[in-house]
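I would like you to sit down with the record closing this message with an eye to the fold:
=====
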Amino acid sequence: MNSHFLALSSLVTLFFFLTILPPSYCTDDERFVECRRPFDCGRIKNISYPFLRDNRPEPCGIPEFKLTCRDNEYPIISLKN
């Protein structure tokens, strides 16, 4: 196969994926709207991924990093083992 043809077809394919297809399918997904917003716990502000808060859906963080906001003063993380 001609190397120029291979390079051109690769370039056309890359152009297609970068311009024709939407940049991301999950940015407009309502399931992830809450995930984009950081949360506060007392004096600690703007907590975000990978931390997960009790009232957020699981795709918003890693379940092992689930935080509980105790008395709205400080975050508590429960570690297993």
